[in-house]
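Subject: for your reference before the review

Hello V.,

The reviewers asked for a structural picture of the protein, and I figured it would be easier to keep everything in one thread rather than splitting it across files. Below is the amino acid sequence we used in the manuscript, unchanged from the supplementary table.
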Amino acid sequence: MAAPFGAVLLREDQGALVSVEVMPFSRPLIPPGSPVLEEAVRQFEAYFEDPRWTLTLPLLGRGTRFQQLVWNALKAIPVGEARSYGRLSAVLGSGPRAVAGACRANEVPIIIPCHRVVSGQGLGGYCGRLSGPYLDIKRWLLRHEGYAVS
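And here is what came back from the structure prediction:
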């Protein structure tokens, strides 16, 4: 689907969303092929209009126990706010690199808002990248949600 920053590729399996891939470039639009994908497109469009929209889509549970713990902490970060890797790791009794690794393993960004996690020295990474157009997507998402980004 088209997104304000490029495109979002949604994948579904067994009636649940399994991945959300954010892309800094446009792609040919592919019509949703299932009710889950149709609902996902509808909800993402609503989120792009209103950042306070809550995405409530069925997700196929994946990830290690630690990753699930981090992802639940990410979902608790309010819209318009961010947390540092260090602050999250202190709360979770872990290290910042482990939190960053769990963020990088997140297959459903935006739904699990890893963009709300920043470095103590700046923006940090996004989608496993520390520079380039994916950080522009992170900036767009944070600004869209009302978080001040330089």
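For the response letter, the relevant points are probably these. The longest helix spans residues 35-49. Residues 76 and 113 are 9 Å apart (CA to CA).

Happy to draft the paragraph if you're swamped.

O.
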